[in-house]
Give the backbone structure.
Amino acid sequence: MNRSTLKRKKIGVLMGGRSSERAVSLKSGRAIYEALKSLNYRVVPVDAGRDLCSILRRKQISYAFIALHGGYGENGAVQGLLEILGIPYTGSGILASALAMDKEASKKIFISQGIPVPPFKVVYRSAVMDRNSGRSFMMKLRTGFAMPWVIKPAAEGSSVGVVIVRNRGQIKKALEAAFQYDDRIIIEKYIPGKEIHIGILNNAVLGGVEVRPSLEFYSYEAKYTSGLTEYILPPVLDRKSYALSKRLALASHKALQCSGATRVDLRVNNRGNPFVLEVNTIPGMTETSLLPKIAKQAGIEFSDLLEKILEGAFYGQ
Ligand SMILES: Nc1ncnc2c1ncn2[C@@H]1O[C@H](COP(=O)(O)OP(=O)(O)O)[C@@H](O)[C@H]1O
Ligand SMILES: [Mg+2]
């Protein structure tokens, strides 16, 4: 749909919601709302709570810009609701959203496509909880790969519940932290080296950013406290590994059948080999978020990026 037709639509910017990333989502949503408003779009901020369906009807929203992170907003549930209501929406469809949100499902698809991922093991709460002595459980926990490990909930974001474990004494606490958010967690081999995020827009690579946190890893705090992380555009990588990272990022986006704007997180080891961590189907969207930074480096200003995302909106069935 072209920009002049879009300007006649009533666009709901869906933000907030009920996930652990509510606060971040409100910031993305606010930035999108302000930018679209100043471009003369008819925008309405919508806090996506339990009453989302009735708000969308009452406010007669005919187009949705989804700025929800985590939970229902990113896992396909809100996308399903919008399809039932016949409201076109930005970003990925139901299946791609669900697959990308689930780190176990997405890793399995990446592997089937020959996309390298760190060695990992999936652990269910039920397999752990019956054994109440932490010690006997830990003796049974075998991953088949050396420490350090990264323990993370299977379906969270923003590094919520992610802990790095460097010795066996740290396992129990890390498992408890991750199990606070999910009944299923992933134990992954820690990949030393660099962290690279690649931005993708409408099935093309925009570019990448190297993320250098001053903390142990790119934790929630390192992500959202200004000054704690250094961002380098483009990443300081040799040409071959950067080219490979970009290729793998696009392959990951396509493997999950994503659309619109995504951001793919990768680790690149000391030998220059990239490993895909995940695809974010609703990347942070404040003006200083990573995808907008990458777009800007590629010559696409924030407002232009938003309009390109809107133009690529998904129509549902
Ligand atoms: N296998 C790994 N090796 C090294 N660091 C990792 C690994 N997995 C995760 N991390 C660190 O944890 C952060 C969050 O992990 P990620 O898988 O991207 O989950 P989230 O959805 O919470 O962003 C990453 O940005 C990275 O800094
Ligand atoms: Mg991530």
In short: The chain has three domains: 3-91, 99-116+192-281, 120-189. The first helix runs from residue 3 to 6.
